[in-house]
Amino acid sequence: MNARRRLQALLALAMLPLAGTVAAQQEFPIPNKPIRIVVGFPAGGGTDLQARLVGQHLSQVLNVPVVIENKPGAGTMLAAMEVQKAVPDGHTLLYTPSSTLAMLPHSLAAVKYDTFKDFTPVSLGALGPLVLVLHKSIPAANVRELVAWAKANPGKINYVSQGVGTSAHLYGEIFARQAGIDMVHVPYKGANDVAKDFISGRVHLQFASSSAAVALAKTGEVRMIGVVAGKRSPLFSDLPTMGEQGVSGVDIESWVGYFGPAGMPPATVRKLNDAIGQVLKMPKLQEDYRQGGAEAKPSTPEEFARIVRGTYDEWAQTLQKIGYAKQ
């Protein structure tokens, strides 16, 4: 390579960060450029359906196409890393549960992102507690009866998760320790296999998302017996919390929200937040969410940032208390 070509190559490399900055500073939304909402689950699940419901209306509000991109794997980390490296122009968003950015950094050594340095909170999207669901083959109608049966039958109950270090795994670990029972952890790689084996009775217990719990309960093979929350959820007003049933420490509430990559212009964040808020306040959408076991819940970016920080700190304290080491 002669000197002139070498200089041209160096100049081109130097311009790459500037190109990203220019793109991020363009007025949002960029005409005809789609907004990608990245979801770390396969199509058809509760989180995916919520994103698709919002996407349909968001496209109309902002007058640009909105596409949902499913990127399952690594307990939602793949989706987070996809958004982490995106241009911060508002056209790439992550829609993800609290576990991705508030819990996994404390539970898994493989996490390669920083919750507060690599992402921009845009808006809360939905609330929905985790629900303790139990296969009907276990003769227990509530948590107290489950604990009594498990103590009388040590090691005969297994609980399922979508991988080591995920929320279902950690809540199972905390529950077993707090209740003084012996359960076997069975990690899976995919939600579809979890549901199939749960319904068949191959696995017995799971701390499931509210939307997954509703779907499982509709099969008639699984019953909901407790919610993970500090107080009863309006979605399941007749279902007692774990604390009400004598098991403390299983009460960190779950949410799902919208994030962009770090460095998004404040005006872009505000415009996205306003548009998402408009959509989440639509009565029909709110009813669709409720039918799926979730509560549509917008917020300001500032409120959402405080929620993220609070949940992140709660998980740090809880895992420290039980002596959990990163896997």
UniProtKB/TrEMBL annotation:
Belongs to the UPF0065 (bug) family. It comes from Ramlibacter aurantiacus. The keyword Signal applies. Residues 1-24 form the signal peptide. This is Tripartite tricarboxylate transporter substrate binding protein. PANTHER family: BLR1237 PROTEIN, TRICARBOXYLATE-BINDING PROTEIN. Keywords: Signal.
